[in-house]
Every structure is written in structure tokens, then in C-alpha cells.
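Hi, can you check this record?
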Amino acid sequence: MSPEFVSNEEIVQEARRRLSQGPWDYLVGASESETTMRRNRLAFDRVAFRPRVLVDVSSIDTSADFLGHSLRIPVVLAPIGSLQVFIPEGGAEAARAAAEFGTAHVVSSVTQPSLEEIAAAGGSSNMFQLYIHGDWEWTKDMIDRVKAAGYKAFCITVDTATYSRRERPLMTRWTPVSQRNPRDPVWQASVTWESIDRIKEYAGLPFMLKGIATAADAAMALEHGVEVIWISNHGGRQLDHGLGTIDMLPEIVDVVGDKAEIVIDGGVQRGSDVVKAVALGAKAVAIGKLQGWGLAANGTAGAVRVLEILQEEIRIAMGLMGVTSIDQLSPSFVTKAEPVTQPHEMSAWTNMPGGRLQ
């Protein structure tokens, strides 16, 4: 553990001290005007709590179940490409953090070290996310490796038919590792619902679709037997001028009901954000930037500390709302409200009023 960090704001500041400009821009930036990224944060800021009082909250349980796995808090580590630019052995460090804390790591197919090495580092709670970068034989080989390594669930990201313009790293002439020797983009661009059916059948694992942004596509996913609807706009790093993800959540919950589990990411910076998302119908949230900041600040211990701080914030929010277990949260505990700050990638922390740590 890293008890010297008393807040995730301090972890962000330490990550900035340790990272060079290129990896920092890759981690904190988004596409084009970064409007979608800011809307992710704004959407959380527009949700307020409606607490209940005079409830015995002397014992609070922050744990949750996801795909049959027990999580210490309803937070998983999102798939991030090129984790190794934040710290050597990046994917393995994240897997160790998830295992040590007691949650799941969804491993990106474009991070390092190998998927087998990451699986060995993370124990039994790893899940795998695949970008389609080859033909069917290539895809089958990847699935075979994933299953042999013992991954518990399989995820396809569906909002990356084409790579976006992420101008912060472009302006500093820094290229992400995954783009230095890019695969033929035709494979990712040609993925369809029929492709998903084929992959899902061959994989034979609980199946997640990451990048759902509308009720219509959520309904399609249900028709294709998907077990997890992952609401995401890639943290604002793909299509610009999209909605904030928590703004998408209610209409998707209405369609999905109890037919699948829902994960959401995008703009999550506080334990209170996690509580808001679960109250509105998410089973769990996924963290990307926070995970990267933790790893950059202090490797496995830094990522564990991020999760510990989130748990403490969740526990406090639940206690002050009159809630003793995650499954008690419902829409009755939240309401719409006006935001009080201008949103940016760090606007949940009071000592970073201007955003960008240069």
C-alpha cells in the first residue's frame, strides 16, 4: 500500500511528476475538441444525492457481484492500451493491483506484456478485451490463447471502427505504442453483428460489448445474447461531441432491465461517481485514467491505493445517504441538479481548477 497518498488528487500530481509529456498527453487527453470527455465529467456533476437519515449505518458493505465474481467495490480496471508507457510491465502491474485489492482487470489486447504473462500475474479474476486486428484465423488464435490462459470473460470494443484524432499527443509528435506499427485498419472497420455472433460462439465465455451508447444498440446486443452491456464512449477518445455516459445510462437501463449486466466508464473520478452510476442501474463502473495515474505514480501499490481511496469515498457516501449495502442503491437516491464547476479531466479535485497539468 501507499499510505502517503491521502487523496487521488495527490496520486495524479505524482503521476505528472513521473511521466514525460507524450505518455501524459496520451493518458489525460481525448479526441479533437475534447467535448465528449468534458461531457462525461459534466454528466456526473449534474447528478445530486437525495439522502435518507436516521438509518443504522454502523456496518456498511461496499462489495458487489459481477458476472459471478465478488468485487470488493463495484469498480473494475478498464482495458488500456500501452500501459507499459506509464510503468514497465504495465499490464502485469495492473493485474497484480486488481488481485491484491480484490477486483477484476479487463486486459487490453494492445498492452504489454503478453496476455499469458498478465494472466499469470493477476490470478483468477482477469477478463480479456480484444481489438480485431486480423482475419478469422488470427482471431481464433487470439481466442484460443485467451481461453488457455484462463481468462474468465471476453470483451470486444465496438467504438473503434477508425482511430480518432487525439490532438494532445499529435501536437507533441508522440505516437502511442499501438500506432507505431499499426495493423491494417480494414479488420477493425469491418466488424459487424455477424462478426460478434461468430466470435461469441467460438469463445464460449461470458461476453461483453464495450462501446454501447444508445438504447437501440443495447437492444441489438441483447438479441445477440450479450451478457454485459458496457456503456462507453472510450473516455471521449473516439467520437467527439457525444453524450456523457451517465446521460446514456437511464435509457439503456430501461431496455436492458435484468437481461444483462451493465458496466459504465467515462469521467469516473470519485467514489461518489461510482455510487451515482450504481444508483442509476449500473452493475459496476470501470476506471481508465485513474488506473493509469495510479500505475504511473507508484506501480501496483499506486493502483491499489487508488482503489482504496475510492472504497473509502464510497463507504462515506453510502453512510451519509443512509445506505448499508450496494444493492440498496436505486434511482430514488439521486436527482438532477445544476453543476457548480466547469468540467475537465481533473475537475473533481478542488486544487486543479484549470485542468491541464502541463
Observations:
- The chain has 14 helices and twelve strands.
